[in-house]
Structures are given as structure tokens and as C-alpha cells.
Amino acid sequence: MLSLFRLILVSLMISTTAWAEKIEIKSNPEEAEIFIIADDAGTPQKIGKTPFKQDLKELIQTYVKKNNFVFELRKDGYEPYRVLFTKTSNLDVELAVNLEVSREIKTIKKHDLLMVELFDVQKLIRGKNFPDALNKLNLLEKDYPHFSIIAELKGTTYYMMKDVEKALSYYRKSFALNSDNVDSYKMKVYLEKKLGIDTEKN
Prior knowledge:
22% of the residues are buried. The protein contains six helices and eight strands; from the N terminus they run βββββαβββααααα. The protein has two domains: 2-101, Sandwich (Immunoglobulin-like); 104-195, Serine Threonine Protein Phosphatase 5, Tetratricopeptide repeat (Alpha Horseshoe), CATH 1.25.40. Helix content is 43%, strand content 22%. It has helices at 56-63, 103-126, 130-143, 148-160, 164-177, 182-194; strands spanning 6-10, 23-28, 33-37, 44-49, 52-54, 68-74, 81-86, 93-98. It is an alpha/beta fold.
């Protein structure tokens, strides 16, 4: 759907008898596939890759079946980019497009960063640098509030600090966020028994 993509309307108001000398499309990064969507069915037709330069009149005569048409740029790992044109023009058209990294790739990179941060936290815990470990975990919790591993590591930190009640509260939170977190469940049950709390009610 067009609402999923950036849409720029380029309105070229001139006589229908005059055409642009050329259209030039560049992208960052390069090698983006270029499609033209110009029929009633909205079927994308590949016309080349960036950097791209061609006679616009020729493109229109070959592909365009209605008054408006769309150029779409696609590249793996990036969001598609669409530009809407009217059919008439007597100007050269130059487009320079900065493609945006796709949401999926952004999510993967964000998770990779989390793993690096958690590795650092584990080193701090093993080195008994508990205040810095908790500070890092507090910051991570703001960005990743639904990740059970963060609550689990908080529980581990407090447990090593001999604060059993706080440790239990975070192991419970971790298990509540992810009922498949076996380690958090085992620690939750262990600490509940240690504190004389009925596990079945918690």
C-alpha cells in the first residue's frame, strides 16, 4: 500500500506536447532496483538499477497507460521508496534518494546491541561490580521493557548481593514476562522455598 512507503508528488505542469530530455535516478546505497508502475492494474515493471539515466519520453511511451505513474526503488534490507509523477513534463528530472534501513534490519541491529550490552553486564556481575551492573540493567530495561533476560540478570545481581527478597521479585518478574524462562522459574521456586513462601500461590 502507498501508505507504507514515502510518497513524493512531483507535479510537472506543462503542455502535453513537450517532454523531459532525460530522467536520472541515484540512490544511497547504489544498485537499488527501479520499477515503474504505470498501468491500471498497478503492475510493477523493472526498468533498471541505480544509478539510472534514460530518456523520459521513451519510458512514458513504452510503459505509461494513464496520466500518473510511479517510480519505485527497492533494495534488500531497505524500505521501498516511491515517487509519483504526472505524465507531462519539459524538464530534466533528477532524483537523489537516501534509502532507509528496513524495520526488520533495525530490529536485528537493536537486538545485536542488546546482546553486547548483556555480555558486558555479565562481566560486571562476575567481577562483583554490582552497582555498575544494575545501572546498565536499569538503562536497558527502559529500552527493552519486555525482555525477561534483563529482569533475570537483575535477580542474579541482587542474589549475589545477598538481597534475597529483591532477587525473588525480579525472578518473578522475569518468569512473568516469559514463562519459558526455565532458569528464572527454578530460581523463583528456590528462593520462595528459602523464604518459606508457598510457591503454588505465586
